[in-house]
Amino acid sequence: MIRSRPASLAATAAMATLTCLLTACGTGSSAGASGSGSDGKKQVTVAFYPLQFVTEQVGGDRVQVTNLVKPGAEPHDLELQPKQVADLGKADLVVYLRGFQPAVDDAVDQRAKQNSFDAAAVQSLQDAPAGGEDHGKDAHIWLDPTRLAAVADKVADRLAMIDSAHAADYRSRASTLRTKLEALDKEYTTGLAQCQRREIVTSHAAFGYLASRYKLTQIPITGLNPEEEPKPQHLTAVANQARHYKATTIFFETLVSPKVAETVAKEVGAKTEVLDPIEGIEEGSSEDYVSVMRSNLTKLRPALGCS
To answer: Transmembrane residues, as ranges (predicted)?
Structure first.
């Protein structure tokens, strides 16, 4: 009996080896091939749509992206469920923008300090324009395509760190995206070069980066929070500015009520039009960041009397 035990152990080991071969056990453990998902994809959680766009463009088929904000929902006042907070710690990477969604900032501090990337930390994004008088700092960096390209480059770097076997692919896709975004930037620069006016009256102080990039002046009706109720005296001041600059269009946005823009437009005899801050995309929409930016340009040009 004593002599038979090694043979039994050998047989057991041989059976285990055969089972392992048949079931391909351990195939996900090699460098560069592992990931949170069963298919080996890196699991990336993003805070809202523009970061989803960038991550999907850079990550390609190597990433599975989860957006914390549901399609068509307004991202500023996002409230996270306990499971969402807990899941941040399980993601391979969390991409967010500190200062834009307080609930996400808190959740990252609790669960994802080591596996997060703050898009606001990119060096070229530090000179944030003001969000309008007394409105603090604007966080809508993505409305300047060149700054979004800088974010894409850094996302590629972070993905390359956690999936080194595909580093070249991430950086190649980031380069392709940068080319698209730089082309979009040229469209804006050319399209807004010769205009009768350079002032845009907006319902929400979201367009500071866009205005700064293309030498426009933003006149916001409300502050950085689109749900903010403007004071009557501020509405009067905005209406007076709109008259002074002979504004023909008052811009409102998707995802929030157009009532304040309609109030000012009626007061000054202007029309209203959508200028999308691209904070989110409606569910089932065929649009993406680039197409919405181009749509915004087609609305800015006639509003500003551009030739």
So the answer is: none
pLDDT digits (tens, 9 = 90+) for 128-143: 564 444 345 789 999 9
Q: How far apart are the first and last CA of the chain?
A: 97
User: Could you tell me which of 69, 303, 129 has the C-alpha nearest to residue 202?
Assistant: 303
Strands 199-202 and 116-118: unpaired
Written as one letter, the residue type at 209 is Y
Assigned architecture for domain 191-304: 3-Layer(aba) Sandwich (3.40)
Do residues 260 and 232 make contact, with C-beta atoms less than 8 angstroms apart?
A: no
Closest CA to 253 of 217, 225, 291: 225
Residue 253 contacts residue 275 (beta carbons within 8 Å): yes
pTM, full prediction: 0.84
- CA distances, 290 to each of 68, 119, 174, 176, 278 (Å): 21, 19, 15, 13, 10
Instruction: For the domain made up of 42-188, give the CATH fold.
Output: Rossmann fold (3.40.50)
pLDDT digits (tens, 9 = 90+) for 74-126: 898 899 999 999 999 999 999 999 999 999 999 999 999 999 999 999 966 65
Q: Three-state SS for 36?
A: coil
d(Cα 265, Cα 150) in Å, to the nearest integer? 36
Nearest Cα to Cα of residue 53 among 296, 299, 279, 307: 279
**Nearest to residue 206, comparing CAs of 219, 221, 224, 222?**
224
